[in-house]
Amino acid sequence: MKRVVKKYWMLLQVAAIVSWVRLRLRGESLPAVLKRLDPAALSGETDSARFEDLVYYMDRWLQLFPYNAKGNCFPRSLALYWFATRSGYPVSFHCGVRKDGAGLDGHAWLTLDRQPFHEPGQHWQRFTVTYSFPSEQPVDREPGPPVRPRKGTTATI
Fold this sequence. Notes:
Elements: H1 2-27, H2 30-37, H3 48-64, H4 73-86, E1 92-100, E2 103-112, E3 115-116, E4 128-133
Antiparallel strand pairs: 1-2, 1-4, 2-3
Helix pairs in contact: 1-3, 1-4, 3-4
């Protein structure tokens, strides 16, 4: 009985977050929604078995109630970002584009340590990243000296 309650509680959480993401995206920009989804600090301990269950219920929910005809990657990635960061996973959200015939095709996915995180297949590799959250900072370079305006000029920020 306890397992059944846990299952339905998890499904209810998935439904609530996916619905919240969909509603917010109608009136707010993607960066604004991501800032709302981003916790002040990572919380919780990573529990891979629980997270696998969340991913399963997320995918089932989006099969039953698809986001659009082209796919569910956008709300899936945003909702999984919410669950992952609250489960102790320091993931990054990415959007990308690729040329598809005469138009462009888009995709959204998560990474953990620059590797795909619960991403089905290798589909994400065909896309050029156009947006990441949190923004990726170069890690291979040492920071240079601060750039200061020349005397007699004003700096704009």
